[in-house]
Amino acid sequence: MTRWPLSPPMQAALDQARLAAAAGEVPVGAVVVHRGTVIAAAHNAPRRLHDPTAHAEIVAIRAAAAALGRERLNACELWVTLEPCAMCAGAILHARIGKLYYAAGDPKGGAIEHGARVFAQPGCLHVPEIYAGIGEDEAAALLRAFFAARR
Fold first, then answer.
1. pLDDT tens, residue by residue, 19-44
2. Could you tell me the CA-to-CA distances from 51 to 5, 31, 83 in Å, in that order?
3. Distance separating alpha carbons of residues 67 and 73, to the nearest angstrom
4. Parallel, antiparallel, or unpaired for β 99-104 and 129-132?
5. Which pTM does this prediction carry?
6. Catalytic amino acids?
C-alpha cells in the first residue's frame, strides 16, 4: 500500500475522530469536500444518537446532501479515517460519491479492500475513485489508544 502525506481534508477528518473519542465513541471521523471546500464534517455518534447507522460517513453524507440540496454527490470527495463498512460503502455507492479517501484499513469490519469488497461486486452500480492509506498511522494510533483504554 502506498503511504500518502497527510492532507488538510484528512486532518479535518482526524480532528473529527478525536471529537468522537472524547465523546466516548469509536474514533472515526469523516468530511465531505465539494470543489475544494469542506461542506460537511462528522464523527461516529451511534451511542450519543441511539442510532446504529450514525457512522461518521453516513452522518457526513446526510449533511453534504442537505447542504447541496440533492441526493447525488458525484462531484464530492469523502475523506474518512477508517475503511468504510458495508453499510457505509452502500451509502457511498447510492450517493454516487466521486472519490473516496480513507486512512486505516479495517480487516474486521471494512468492506472496500476487506470483507464484502462492495465496489468489486459485479452488480455494483457505481464505483468511486479510491485512495487508501492517507493518514493511516495517525488514524490507527487513535483507534489503538481508544480500545487499549477500554481493555
1. 999 999 999 999 999 999 999 999 99
2. 34, 19, 20
3. 11
4. parallel
5. 0.94
6. 57
